[in-house]
């Protein structure tokens, strides 16, 4: 279970991907993933917003995560 | 609507966008170009750096065009965003649309750039002389 | 505002307008291009012919830019209108403006094309297959 | 006193300038010029609007006309 990190999320974690497969308790949902991030890297709690994309789509908090999903952390976007 | 041009590129060629939007059914073309400004909050900007989650960004850009096409009768659309380091005066995004009448092209163009800034997973880092800031990251 | 570019020309080169509007103080450029559409009121348009009272038209164009500059903080403006016969898809007018923020460039660009159509002494004749019509001349 | 004609005004009069210097009673004001045009060329009465420019500026009806003024008939504009 690999998570892609972009923008400031990369700076907060200190790398561009995060491997969750070695965790004892893996997050089962988007909500659990966000809780894990906030607990493990307090920098996330200071952001204006935090979203998660699963398979290239913004994901609702209740979405269940599967091992083969492409997961990405989406800090506040600022294109344009 | 003809198939839109949706791209994430290393550098934007603004000169070609009219040719891409030119259309016999259109009386109006509206183009917005976002460029790097030399000052932000009274600080000198050296450059901007853009990073994209490319596959998802392209999907979100396509959604924006679909939403605009549902609101206004569009003939041709170009939506192109740059990634990488961009210096002052360089183009970072270009959104253009051709429509039969000018109302629709202005409104659709405005809607598309506003929505792009809200939803497309692209991130901008401002490079000042002594620091860098991820735009909008913090309240 | 830098000195605006105001011209009445035989042919419009749309490719150069960005270079003309590019500006270190601007984060947004909005450009409107009016082009010849192949149909009007369900009739096939062969071409349009534009005639201008050139000296007065240039003065009225300058007034519009002054009015816009009083409403919005503009950095650079291009206002260029073509005269003569223009075929389908050809550009007949281009209005572009660069500003620090995008709100102002959209609003100023829209104001300038709307006002140009109201006040600048330029006349458009629609050439159909079997007739010609001076646009807006009759109720 | 020469008057420039543009657009449909040229078609109505049949030429691109109109020399008023030979008239017995010359129009003294914009208002009189418009009355003269409407009387002499009824096509003008059918237009959506009719304006007069004096020395390159839209002129009010009461403006006095001088022999050296640059006068132009402005039928409904349709640029853009």
TrEMBL record, chains A, D:
Keyword Metal-binding among record annotations: no
Keyword vocabulary terms for this entry: Nucleotide-binding
Top-level taxon: Bacteria
SUPFAM superfamilies per the UniProt record, alphabetical: MoaD/ThiS
Pfam families: ThiS
Gene3D superfamilies: 3.10.20.30
Chain ranges passing through the membrane: none
InterPro entries per UniProt: Beta-grasp_dom_sf (IPR012675), MOCS2A (IPR044672), Mopterin_synth/thiamin_S_b (IPR016155), ThiS/MoaD-like (IPR003749)
Signal peptide as annotated in the record: none
Membership in a protein family: Belongs to the MoaD family.
Name by which UniProt lists this protein: Molybdopterin synthase sulfur carrier subunit
Organism: Maribacter arenosus
UniProtKB/TrEMBL annotation, chains B, C:
Pathway(s) this gene product operates in, as recorded in its UniProt entry: Cofactor biosynthesis; molybdopterin biosynthesis
Pfam families in the record: MoaE
Enzyme type, top EC level: transferase
InterPro entries, sorted: MoaE_sf, Mopterin_biosynth_MoaE
Catalytic reaction(s) noted: 2 [molybdopterin-synthase sulfur-carrier protein]-C-terminal-Gly-aminoethanethioate + cyclic pyranopterin phosphate + H2O = molybdopterin + 2 [molybdopterin-synthase sulfur-carrier protein]-C-terminal Gly-Gly + 2 H(+)
Record's keyword annotation contains Cell division: no
Superkingdom assignment: Bacteria
Coiled-coil portions: none
Keywords linked to the UniProt accession: Molybdenum cofactor biosynthesis
E.C. numbers: 2.8.1.12
Assembly information from the UniProt record: Heterotetramer of 2 MoaD subunits and 2 MoaE subunits. Also stable as homodimer. The enzyme changes between these two forms during catalysis.
PANTHER family per the UniProt record, alphabetical: MOLYBDOPTERIN SYNTHASE RELATED
UniProt record similarity statement: Belongs to the MoaE family.
Name listed for the protein in its UniProt record: Molybdopterin synthase catalytic subunit
Organism: Maribacter arenosus
């Amino acid at each position: 279970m690999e998570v892609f990190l972009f923008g400031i999320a990369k700076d907060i974690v200190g790398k561009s991907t995060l491997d969750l497969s070695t965790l004892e308790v893996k997050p089962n949902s988007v909500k659990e993933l966000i809780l894990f991030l906030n607990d493990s890297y307090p920098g996330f709690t200071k952001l204006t917003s935090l979203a998660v994309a699963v398979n290239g789509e913004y994901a609702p908090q209740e979405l269940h995560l599967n091992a083969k999903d492409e997961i990405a952390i989406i800090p506040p976007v600022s294109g344009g | 609507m003809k198939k839109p041009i949706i791209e994430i590129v290393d550098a934007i060629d603004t000169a070609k966008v009219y040719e891409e939007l030119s259309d016999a059914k259109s009386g109006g073309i509206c183009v917005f170009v976002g460029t790097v400004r030399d000052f932000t909050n009274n600080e000198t900007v050296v450059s901007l750096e853009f990073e994209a989650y490319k596959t998802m960004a392209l999907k979100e850009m396509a959604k924006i065009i679909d939403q605009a096409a549902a609101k206004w009768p569009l003939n041709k659309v170009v939506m192109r965003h740059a990634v990488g380091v961009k210096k002052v005066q360089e183009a970072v995004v270009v959104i253009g649309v051709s429509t039969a009448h000018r109302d629709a092209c202005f409104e659709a163009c405005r809607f598309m750039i506003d929505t792009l800034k809200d939803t497309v997973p692209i991130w901008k880092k401002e490079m000042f002389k002594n620091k860098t800031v991820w735009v909008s990251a913090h309240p």
